[in-house]
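dumping this here so i dont lose it
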């Protein structure tokens, strides 16, 4: 298995074969926009697996239309589970799609939602960043909401992780971290596992990387309140300390829907703690993650991420020098 420390710094010919895997359920309102803006990318996908997770609306007909038009689109159909299932349900669907992919045939793999509107150079720009930096394992752009007056407002997401709806991975990195944890907060745990393994993980705000989220993050299952409570439960599962979640909840009170966003996260965390819910059992990860959170509280998330990324590069060079390379 390849890790970041195994990668040579000498330039290699650029290969831009990327595969998208899209869990999809009842997305008729949004999926056509995603299909249109993805098929019009300056560098189209090598393969796009769309997993229809039991849709009961017009989604299957829309998907079939585009599958017939584009050779690289392949539809995988699952039985109707009776409801939308976020978190582990989405990752189950993702892995059903991954079963149809030969990872040796592609250079990049992306978990990609079907409620997104992309700028035309989105994937080309992500691959440019990967090609320029052999440490870069996982990256995305930033999510934006389109307001009634057509202005874009950025959804408040940390810089230290690729956003959940579009997780773009170098295949070597994805394999090195063991893929996604099949539980809520999979999309937070993965970025920290990247840094543990010596890879860079982040999201960036650039004009070519501004993704319009057609449905506000956390609103895809029942309501925004349910989404925020689920978020808090996820923070408990992934090992966040109570004092960090308190700070996070206060911070999130200042985003739409105001106040409720933060209260829901705090309540979800407390409920999970009282109920004795399971936590992600990986002692090395827990130690690494808690240290990262403490540093973030004092230095800020962006500065902390940069310090960790600088450390990855320094240790990489030191390891190569010690090996006489």
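and the seq i came up w/
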């Amino acid at each position: 298995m390849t890790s970041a420390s195994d990668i040579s710094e000498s330039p290699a010919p650029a290969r831009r074969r990327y595969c998208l895997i899209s869990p999809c359920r009842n997305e008729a309102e949004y999926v056509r926009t995603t299909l249109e803006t993805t098929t019009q990318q300056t560098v189209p996908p090598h393969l796009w697996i769309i997993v229809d997770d039991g849709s009961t609306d017009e989604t299957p007909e829309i998907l079939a239309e585009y599958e017939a038009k584009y050779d690289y689109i392949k539809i995988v159909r699952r039985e109707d589970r009776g409801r939308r299932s976020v978190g582990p349900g989405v990752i189950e669907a993702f892995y059903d799609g991954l079963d149809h992919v030969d990872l040796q045939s592609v250079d990049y793999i992306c978990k990609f939602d079907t409620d997104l509107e992309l700028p035309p150079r989105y994937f080309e720009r992500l691959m440019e960043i990967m090609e320029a930096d052999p440490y870069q394992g996982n990256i995305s752009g930033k999510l934006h909401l389109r307001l009634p007056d057509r202005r874009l407002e950025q959804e408040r997401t940390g810089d230290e992780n690729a956003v959940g709806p579009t997780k773009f991975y170098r295949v070597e990195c994805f394999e090195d971290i063991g893929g996604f944890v099949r539980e809520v907060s999979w999309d937070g745990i993965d970025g920290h596992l990247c840094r543990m393994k010596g890879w860079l993980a982040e999201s960036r705000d650039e004009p070519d990387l501004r993704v319009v989220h057609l449905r506000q993050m956390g609103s895809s299952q029942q309501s925004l309140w349910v989404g925020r409570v689920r978020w808090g439960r996820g923070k408990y599962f992934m090992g966040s300390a109570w004092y960090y979640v308190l700070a996070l909840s206060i911070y999130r009170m200042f985003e739409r829907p105001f106040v409720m966003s933060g209260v829901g996260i705090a309540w979800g965390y407390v409920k999970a703690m009282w109920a004795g819910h399971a936590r992600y059992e990986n002692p090395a990860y827990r130690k690494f993650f808690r240290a990262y959170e403490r540093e973030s509280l004092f230095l800020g998330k962006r500065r902390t991420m940069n310090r960790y990324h600088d450390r990855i590069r320094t240790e990489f060079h030191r390891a190569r020098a010690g090996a006489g390379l």
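The chain has eleven helices and eleven strands.
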